[in-house]
């Protein structure tokens, strides 16, 4: 029985830009509060025109075996049928509202005995 190969598209914020990467493995990871991304997939360019954001993305993650992305930075994770071309986009104009990172678990109040 052939092993099914999953491909995930992960969209996340990084330093004011929106990154979209493709990977074969995405999990909760060993670091609390982080998403672990492994086995990056970069789609082969089939056209003569090269997208500078794809080139920058390949340089950014070249030689990276595993990357940990803060959970609060992740916008979306999709399982897709085939890999696409990763890209880096600037944030939308006027999109200056960000949520303040909050703890995953809030501490319970202390009880006085």
Written description of the protein model:
This protein has 113 residues and is mainly beta. It has a domain at 1-31 and 72-91. It contains one helix and six strands, in the order βββαβββ. The protein has one helix spanning 52-61; strands at residues 7-14, 17-27, 34-41, 66-70, 74-80, 87-90. Strands 1, 2, 3, 4, 5 and 6 form a six-stranded antiparallel β-sheet that branches. β2 and β3 (34-41) form a beta hairpin. The longest helix is centred in the middle third of the chain and has 10 residues, at 52-61. The protein is globular and about 65 Å long. The model has no long low-confidence stretch (mean pLDDT 78).
Features:
globular; 113 residues; mainly beta; 1 helix
Summarize the structure.
This protein is mostly beta strands and 113 residues long.
